[in-house]
Every structure is written in C-alpha cells, then in structure tokens.
Amino acid sequence: PTQRDRVLLTVLMTDIAGSTEQAVRIGDQAWREIIEAHDRAAGAAVARHGGTIIKSTGDGLLATFQGPSRAIVCARELQSETQSLGVLVRAGIHTGECLRRKNDVSGLAVNISARIMDEAPGGEIWVSGTVRDLVVGSDLTFEPLGTRALKGVPGEWPLYKVSS
Predict the structure, then answer these.
(1) Residue 85: helix, strand or coil by DSSP?
(2) Rounded CA gap, 126 and 129, in Å?
(3) SS3 86
(4) Contact, 93 vs 131, CB < 8 A?
(5) CB 97 within 8 A of CB 7
(6) What backbone torsions phi and psi does residue 117 show, to the nearest 5 degrees?
(7) Looking at residue 119, what is its pLDDT?
(8) Cβ-proximal residues to 98 (8 Å cutoff; 6+ apart), any chain
(9) Can you spell out the DSSP letters for 15-77?
(10) Among the listed residues 69, 75, 87, the one whose alpha carbon sits nearest the alpha carbon of residue 139
C-alpha cells in the first residue's frame, strides 16, 4: 500500500445490542423483518449525512464519514428511527487514518471504532477523545467515561458518551 491509500476518515460502527437473544425469542422470520427495516433506516441515515456504508455486519454496519459530527448525528438518527422496531442500537466512533482497499477500509482506526462500540451499552453512542476534540465548537455535548484499555489496541483511550 502507498501513502495515497491512507485517508483520514471518521469511522462509525453500530450493532443491535442483544441481537442473538432477541432473534431466538422472536424467531427467524420476525428477526429478518427487523434487520431489513434496520438496514433501510441505516442506509437512509448514512446517505442523508454524506457517509458511505462500507459493509453490513449482520446486525449493524461499518460506515465512514468526512467529519465526526456527521457520524454522530447519523448514529443518533439511526437510534431514534430503530426504536420503533424494539431494538437498541449502540455505536462507536473514531477518527483516524484508514487504509482504503477497493470498496473496503481497514487499519487501526477501524479496529478502535469497533472496540469502542463493544464497550458501549445499547442505546448509547461512545466516541474517542479524538472525536470529542475535533467537534469542539459544535453543539454536541459529551460525558467523560474515563480512560479504558481497548482489546488489542495499544495504550489507554479516553472515551466519551454523546449526551442526548
């Protein structure tokens, strides 16, 4: 890979909290309808905020944005639009350099977003300190969660919850 394959992006990772248990409880067909409605809502929200869906993760998504506030507002909209489906979407957001490979992205920034999402409970949006610092001056507010070790990622990372 060359330097031109490295791009600065905001990475949004989402998933439905407790999806396996919910799928077992309501059955495959009902779960499939929920996932399809979720995917439609996610596609529309990402498009409205100028993002790109990189891939579906079964019960969530990996999307990239040119700026962190767009990713946060998109995640909020997705949460509010999927509440009526009876699911809680959690989100992790980080901004960093990604390696672009055809229609995919990889790199530590993607892993960090996934690890932040793994820490977040359903219905919450958690971001890295990088994201919080980049949106200074916006009307977004955050609650500090302290620093945490993220599985497989070196160092301790300051995390923040997006306030409603």
Answers:
(1) helix
(2) 10
(3) coil
(4) yes
(5) yes
(6) -60, -40
(7) 95
(8) 6, 7, 8, 9, 11, 64, 105, 106, 107, 109, 110
(9) EETTHHHHHHHH-HHHHHHHHHHHHHHHHHHHHHTT-EEEEE-SSEEEEEESSHHHHHHHHHH
(10) 69
91, 58 contact by CB (below 8 A): no
Q: What are the C-alpha distances in Å from 153 to residues 109, 110, 111, 138, 148? A: 10, 11, 8, 28, 10
Q: What does the pLDDT read at residue 1?
A: 59
Pair of tokens at residue 92: 């992790």
Give Cα separations from 110 to 114, 153, 155 (angstroms).
Answer: 6, 11, 16
Q: How far apart are the first and last CA of the chain?
A: 40
Alpha-helix residue ranges (DSSP H) falling in 59-147: 68-82, 108-119, 129-134
* Confidence at residue 164, expressed as pLDDT on a 0 to 100 scale: 75
Q: Residue 24 has which token pair?
A: 């077992």
Q: Which residues of the chain are modeled with pLDDT < 70? A: 1-2
Which residue is associated with the tokens 């790199």? Answer: 107
Question: Residue 95 carries which DSSP code?
Answer: E
The Cα–Cα gap between 110 and 105 comes to 8
Q: Write down the residue that tokens 């990189």 correspond to.
A: 54
